[in-house]
């Protein structure tokens, strides 16, 4: 029996996701404030519609955005969707900066202009359209890295041009730029350092678990329990033992080991990283084709040669997937370190929450999200490329 | 030469290989046939010590195989397995070079050896050296697998169902290539298979195994003509034993003087092929050619005589 499904003309013409994107975008454009203006950092904001901010481009910009959402509404080629969404995002990014400058009276250093819900919703809708277009294009790993580089170049160019300098989050940055870079460094050290330590420890432990099935259950069980401890609780639990080590082990305090600070944050992130590293190493090694591993033994490789030349290279894509999981997880989790004096971008997030200063929260949160995203894209491409080498 | 003496392997007190004694003369192919679970693979794997025996001994070219560490022993014994076992992340050249590299040969020698082996297995070195295993056909993978096993020029080659994953046409070709290469190199081969036809085609001697014991170890014609027990008979099947005997003899062995009608048959063909051709073309005899010249004939009567049970 042949089933024939008739599409109504309406179904054929409209893109399913496009309907949602267009509805959300047009609602945000016409019914939500594009900017929020505050007389100083902490008072509640006044909503400003896009047409109330002359610098945002006025009617021509609104017309352009309306047309863009109109294009996304209909079925079109993925490249058209990606192009439209990217152009609209770029326009939006410029409009928000120029719009903010235009409503600020010259010389007023107390007033704060932030992007409003209209901007965020449109940004979300367009980002969704762009990623959807990218996914439908089915780009190879190298092309995806190319897109990532293009996005980074665009963001750096906008930052360097000073278009965003009058936005509240950038004002927060300007008043603490030295602290920002210092905490960004700490954040990267925490996230990457813990991953590095987890690789150095986790891969050998994974190899031992693979070789000795009796050890495996115990090790993975303990790591599983660590993984289930809520992050804030784990940071708290580490205060007592780390303080004891700092106080009683000679030289430990000189290394900065104490109950609070960078050391317990590092240890906690490391502990969270271990399970994915160990279990991905074990799963990767177990996934090596049996006949390849048998042949290696039968041809006279020693255990170490077989591990180094056959098993580890063949398990590499799965181990790299583990590194990806752990790195993305750590970049996010390192924000919590701000709570226990460990530094990192979390400092701005928690200061911002305490002062109800959302722009300051964003100054901490947006770079962390951007770094996690970048790491995910780069490592995903790496995993795909390494799989190709094996196929 | 491989001498296996009173070899036993126990797993949990149960004998998987039970007091096996057999000798494979140098330069011969011994085929070990049996059903799954008969212990044939365990027996093979004890030769290169992938499995350590519970008791008994194995001597290869007069030396006990426990004289050197297991991994060094294995570097001097070729090993080819079902599904080829190529390393999927290394190209053909590197796969073949595995054992020479382990033995520390220098680079130029390894490279020359790789080219030599590829040529021997009818794979153009220029085209195939850099191919990855997934870019090869099933038959090519199998050939590279055997080439890799022979890379360091071992005097002994162990093969565990090497043709098991190939389709029938390619399998037949692979078997002929193996025979050809074995005749050229004079390698002693022990080959495990569950396929009696393959054993008859390849083996100079066949060991029939069941429940860990060797039921009969003899030349194929002896096994076909006089199976030692019911199990061996069952492995052989009774339906086509006459044709099996015919397949072991060549036309040259039944050649007689005289003439016959029609297209000639080459003297290296088997009597089975000759007999089939006679039935098909309704002839009582075929002319026989050798190197293009007619040298005599082969008759139905000669074939039938060769196919009957010897007293």
| Rough outline of chain B | globular
The CATH architecture of the largest domain in chain A comes to Orthogonal Bundle
Query: Biggest sheet of chain A: strands, sense, closure?
Result: 3 strands, antiparallel
> Poorly predicted ranges of chain B (pLDDT <50, ≥5 residues)?
none
- Total separate domains of chain A: 2
- Count of DSSP E strands of chain A? 3
Query: What's the Cα radius of gyration of chain A?
Result: 26 Å
Helix and strand run of chain A: HHEEHHEHHHHHHHHHHH
User: How is the biggest beta sheet of chain B arranged?
Assistant: 6 strands, mixed
Trace the largest sheet of chain A across and list its strands.
2-1-3
Q: What portion of residues of chain A is helical?
A: over 70%
Radius of gyration from the alpha-carbon trace of chain B, in angstroms: 21 Å
Number of separate structural domains of chain B: 2
The number of distinct β-strands of chain B equals 13
Greatest interface: A-B, 20 and 27 residues
Strand order of the largest sheet of chain B: 6-7-8-3-9-10
N-to-C order of helices and strands of chain B = EEEHEEHEHHHHHEHEHEEHHHEHEEH
Family (chain B): Belongs to the ABC transporter superfamily.
Keywords (chain B): ATP-binding, Nucleotide-binding, Transport
Protein name (chain B): ABC transporter ATP-binding protein
InterPro entries (chain B): AAA+_ATPase (IPR003593), ABC_transporter-like_ATP-bd (IPR003439), ABC_transporter-like_CS (IPR017871), P-loop_NTPase (IPR027417)
């Amino acid at each position: 029996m042949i089933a024939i499904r008739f599409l109504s003309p309406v179904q054929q013409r409209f893109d399913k996701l496009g309907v949602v994107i267009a509805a959300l975008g047009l609602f945000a454009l016409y019914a939500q404030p594009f900017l929020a203006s505050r007389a100083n950092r902490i008072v509640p904001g006044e909503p400003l519609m896009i047409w109330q901010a002359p610098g945002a481009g006025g009617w021509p910009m609104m017309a352009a955005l309306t047309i863009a959402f109109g294009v996304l509404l209909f079925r079109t080629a993925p490249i058209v969707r990606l192009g439209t969404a990217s152009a609209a995002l770029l326009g939006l990014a410029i409009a928000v900066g120029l719009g903010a400058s235009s409503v600020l009276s010259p010389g007023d250093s107390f007033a704060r202009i932030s992007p409003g819900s209209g901007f965020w919703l449109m940004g979300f809708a367009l980002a969704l359209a762009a990623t959807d277009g990218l996914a439908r294009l089915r780009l190879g790993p190298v092309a995806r890295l190319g897109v990532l580089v293009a996005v980074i170049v665009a963001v750096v160019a906008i930052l360097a041009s000073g278009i965003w300098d009058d936005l509240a989050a950038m004002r927060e940055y300007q008043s603490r730029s030295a602290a920002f870079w210092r905490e960004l460094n700490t954040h990267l050290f925490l996230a990457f350092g813990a991953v590095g330590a987890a690789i150095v420890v986790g891969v050998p432990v994974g190899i031992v678990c693979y070789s000795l099935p009796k050890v495996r259950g115990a090790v993975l069980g303990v790591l599983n329990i660590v993984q289930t401890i809520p992050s804030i609780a784990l940071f708290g639990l580490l205060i007592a033992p780390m303080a004891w080590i700092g106080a009683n082990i000679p030289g430990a305090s000189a290394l900065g080991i104490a109950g609070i600070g960078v050391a317990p944050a590092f240890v906690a992130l490391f502990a969270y990283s271990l399970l994915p590293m160990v279990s991905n190493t074990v799963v990767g090694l177990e996934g090596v084709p049996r006949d390849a591993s048998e042949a290696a033994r039968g041809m006279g490789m020693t255990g170490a040669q077989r591990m180094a030349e056959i098993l580890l290279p063949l398990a590499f894509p799965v181990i790299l997937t583990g590194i990806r999981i752990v790195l993305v997880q750590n970049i996010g989790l390192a924000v919590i370190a701000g709570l226990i004096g460990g530094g990192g971008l979390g400092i701005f997030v928690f200061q911002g929450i305490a002062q109800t200063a959302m722009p300051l929260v964003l100054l901490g949160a947006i770079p962390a999200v951007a770094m996690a995203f970048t790491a995910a894209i780069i490592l995903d491409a790496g995993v795909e490329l390494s799989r190709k080498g094996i196929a | 030469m491989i001498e296996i003496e009173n070899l036993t392997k126990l797993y949990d007190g149960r004998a998987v290989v039970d007091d096996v004694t057999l000798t494979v003369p140098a330069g011969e192919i011994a085929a070990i046939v049996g059903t799954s679970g008969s212990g044939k693979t365990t027996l093979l794997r004890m030769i290169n010590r992938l499995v350590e025996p519970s008791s008994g001994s194995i001597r290869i070219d007069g030396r006990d195989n426990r004289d050197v560490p297991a991994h060094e022993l294995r570097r001097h014994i070729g090993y080819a397995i079902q599904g080829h076992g190529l390393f999927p992340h290394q190209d053909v050249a590197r796969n073949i070079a595995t054992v020479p590299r382990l033995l520390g040969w220098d680079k130029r020698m390894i490279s020359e050896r790789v080219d030599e082996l590829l040529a021997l297995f009818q794979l153009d070195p220029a085209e195939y050296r850099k191919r990855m295993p997934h870019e090869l056909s099933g038959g090519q993978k199998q050939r590279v697998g055997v080439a890799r096993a022979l890379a360091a020029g071992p005097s002994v080659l162990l093969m565990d169902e090497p043709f098991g994953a190939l389709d029938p046409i390619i399998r037949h070709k692979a078997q002929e290539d193996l025979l050809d290469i074995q005749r050229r190199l004079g390698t002693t081969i022990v080959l495990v298979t569950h396929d009696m036809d393959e054993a008859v085609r390849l083996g100079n001697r066949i060991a029939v195994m069941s429940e860990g014991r060797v039921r009969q170890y003899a030349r194929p014609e002896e096994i076909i003509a006089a199976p030692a027990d019911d199990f061996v008979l069952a492995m052989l099947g009774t339906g086509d034993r006459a044709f099996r005997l015919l397949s072991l003899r060549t036309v040259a062995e039944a050649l007689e003087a005289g003439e016959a009608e029609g297209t000639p048959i080459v003297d290296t063909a088997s009597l089975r092929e000759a007999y089939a051709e006679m039935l098909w073309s309704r002839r009582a005899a075929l002319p026989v050619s050798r190197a293009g010249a007619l040298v005599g004939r082969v008759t139905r009567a000669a074939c039938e005589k060769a196919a009957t049970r010897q007293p």
